[in-house]
């Protein structure tokens, strides 16, 4: 929603800085849950989420843990939205794409999720979702995005 927020890393989510009911958060959460191959290793149900071991790289594991804390069972979310196909992340494309069925059995549409190197994603977008509305992605918005991306990158943050 055109804001930079810090992820809440508390186990009880007491430091949340965003509205979990907002359309923007729901769209981001959906993408984070579905466009990922990271999973928790088996047999850790009684281990605190932030201490669980995962399959997947460090970034994917961090996203998985964040979503598990914020919305609940990522595995259950994925079961409700089965993956139909994907283009795995690779060093040439520098993005990951997945396509999923919706959890509504009466909805014949699909959900496409994408993540990767920010400039590669931005190059493939014609619209942007801000404050619950899809808007045409103009040069001013692209510049604002790039400025935020560079600022965060300059601080050593993963974008």
From TrEMBL:
Topology with respect to the bilayer: Multi-pass membrane protein
One of the protein's GO biological processes: sodium ion export across plasma membrane
This protein's name: Sodium/potassium ATPase
InterPro entries in the cross-refs: ATPase_P-typ_cyto_dom_N (IPR023299), Cation_transp_ATPase_P-type (IPR050510)
GO cellular component: plasma membrane
Keywords from the UniProt entry: Cell membrane, Membrane
A Pfam family the protein falls into: Cation_ATPase
Ribonucleoprotein among keywords: no
Subcellular location: Cell membrane
Molecular function in Gene Ontology: nucleotide binding; P-type sodium:potassium-exchanging transporter activity
Keyword Methyltransferase listed: no
Species classification: Eukaryota, Metazoa, Ecdysozoa, Arthropoda, Chelicerata
């Amino acid at each position: 929603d055109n804001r930079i927020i810090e992820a809440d890393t508390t186990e009880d989510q007491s430091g949340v800085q965003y509205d979990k009911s907002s359309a923007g958060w729901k769209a981001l959460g959906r993408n984070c849950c579905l466009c990922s191959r990271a999973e928790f290793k088996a047999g850790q149900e009684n281990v605190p989420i932030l201490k669980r071991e995962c399959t997947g790289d460090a970034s994917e594991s961090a996203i998985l843990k964040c979503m598990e804390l914020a919305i609940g069972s990522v595995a259950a979310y994925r079961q409700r939205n089965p993956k139909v196909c994907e283009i795995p992340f690779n060093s040439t494309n520098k993005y990951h794409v997945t396509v999923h069925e919706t959890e509504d059995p009466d909805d014949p549409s699909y959900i496409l999720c994408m993540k990767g190197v920010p400039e590669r994603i931005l190059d493939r977008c014609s619209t942007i979702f801000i404050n619950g509305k899809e808007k045409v992605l103009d040069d001013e918005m692209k510049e604002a995005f790039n400025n935020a991306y560079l600022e965060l990158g300059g601080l050593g943050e993963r974008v």
